[in-house]
Specification:
Elements lengths: L4 H12 L3 H13 L7 H13 L3 H13 L7 H11 L4 H13 L5 H34 L4
Length: 146
């Protein structure tokens, strides 16, 4: 399905206003070559803009691009970064998971203590996240700040 030039101009105008969905959609246009020349570097540019503003689909797609080296230099670490972002995991959670993965290999007292501390830290983070979500839900139900 071809996109006409006025629809493309309208999309570009929406993108320039900072619309995240439009940024992702423009990236899709460059990916498919719909109304524009297919260009993976442009795809990565627009996906990155949307990804940096929190679009989880763009984060995932950008992760795929880094994994496969399409439009960007292949980079497994950068790919993993965007995959974790897409799943809603913070860098702190990623670091905690990596430490737990390493520590499970050891059975000495220090490793056991580290494992307890990390698990406790993870539980605290989950509790804070749950409380924050409850507050957001409560605000949303009450109509927000007045």
């Amino acid at each position: 399905m071809a996109i006409n030039s006025s629809a493309l101009e309208q999309l570009r105008a929406t993108v320039s206003s900072g619309d995240v969905a439009a940024q992702f959609k423009l990236g899709e246009r460059y990916a498919s070559g719909e109304g524009v020349a297919q260009d993976n570097a442009e795809v990565a540019k627009w996906y990155r803009m949307a990804a940096e503003r929190g679009c989880d689909v763009a984060q995932f797609c950008l992760g795929l691009m880094y994994r496969d080296g399409e439009g960007v230099a292949q980079d497994a670490i950068e790919a993993e970064h965007w995959f974790y972002k897409a799943r809603g995991e913070s860098e702190e959670e990623l670091a905690r998971e990596e430490m737990l993965d390493q520590i499970h290999l050891y059975n000495d007292e220090e490793a056991i203590e580290w494992r307890r501390w990390l698990q406790s830290s993870a539980e605290e983070a989950q509790e804070k996240s749950r409380m924050l979500q409850q507050n957001v839900n409560r605000k949303h139900k009450s109509g927000g700040d007045k």
